[in-house]
Specification:
single chain, seven-stranded parallel β-sheet, 16% strand, binds NADPH dihydro-nicotinamide-adenine-dinucleotide phosphate
């Protein structure tokens, strides 16, 4: 896949799945703008990793749960070419716990971090894409949003909402040449899953068809496909990348 001369925005683009997405786009020639919240070391490390690639990666500290953060991200990404071609909404968090014991702050934090960026970044991203009547948006959901996971009612609620949001937006902006799709990963080896109880990870993985954890670059491949010309007639879809968990 060739993304030469395309402008790509990746939220949460400096660690985990987002890092692999940023690197894969840059390896395919894109000018990537990767947003992060606070981890400067990861952002610096990504710039070093990108140095030899044919495209480029610019890292931007921007809290995309806020309108201001999203606007500064999208505006700075569009500064050079006047628009953006691809938007990947990847930033997300977990705050797991059984509902009966869940703190309201954990409910609020997950809804805010996993859903608000979708509103802000898609709104400002679509405004840029409309000028050229073309663009591709890929939103990161999770199998938790399809099949549900105990201890993740807050997370599952947001990940299900990402799928329905994307279907609605796909119908809204399809006539303007903009496609919207979703990637729903299963259990992927990142900092997020490193923080889970490892016997739980093992149990989920050993019950899957492929009997192994997924790697971030295996999710990135699906994101690039949905953003590419090869997927020109695909919109409103959810691609599950879970090694056969569900
Ligand atoms: P990580 O925890 O490894 O990385 C999260 C990234 O999001 C970091 O770059 C972080 O920045 C950034 N981020 C968090 N909050 C914000 C914010 N408010 N503004 C900007 N950036 C922010 O996550 P993963 O790579 O594991 O997950 C990526 C996506 O994939 C998430 O949406 C997740 O729900 C989804 N997913 C992951 C699965 C997995 O098994 N890992 C499975 C299914 C779905 P910083 O480095 O500064 O903290």
């Amino acid at each position: 896949m060739n993304f030469t001369d395309t402008t790509v925005v990746v939220t949460g683009g400096t660690r985990g799945i987002g890092r692999s997405v940023s690197l894969a786009f840059a390896a395919a020639g894109a000018n990537v703008h990767a947003a992060y919240l606070q981890n400067e070391a990861a952002a610096e490390d990504l710039k070093v990793a990108a140095a030899a690639l044919s495209g480029s990666i610019t890292t931007i500290r921007a809290d995309v749960t806020t309108g201001d953060g999203a606007v500064s991200l999208i505006d700075s990404a569009a500064a050079a070419s006047g628009s953006i071609d691809v938007l990947v909404n990847n930033a997300g968090i977990i705050r797991d716990g059984y509902l009966a014991m869940m703190a309201e702050s954990d409910w609020d934090a997950v809804l805010r971090t996993n859903l608000s960026p979708l509103f802000h970044c898609c709104k400002w991203g679509v405004r840029k894409m409309l000028a050229r009547r073309q663009g591709a948006i890929v939103n990161l959901s999770s199998i938790a949003g399809i099949s549900g996971t105990p201890g993740q009612t807050n997370y599952a609620a947001t990940k299900g909402a990402i799928i329905s949001f994307s279907k609605a937006l796909a119908r809204e902006v399809g006539p303007m040449g903009i496609r919207v799709n979703v990637v729903a990963p299963g259990m992927i080896a990142t900092d997020m899953t490193a923080g889970l109880k490892q016997d739980l990870v093992e149990r989920v993985v050993s019950g899957s068809a492929l009997e192994r954890i997924g790697q971030p670059d295996e999710v990135a491949a699906a994101v690039l496909f949905l953003a590419s010309r090869q997927a020109a007639y695909i919109t409103g879809q959810t691609l599950v990348v879970d090694g056969g968990i569900i």
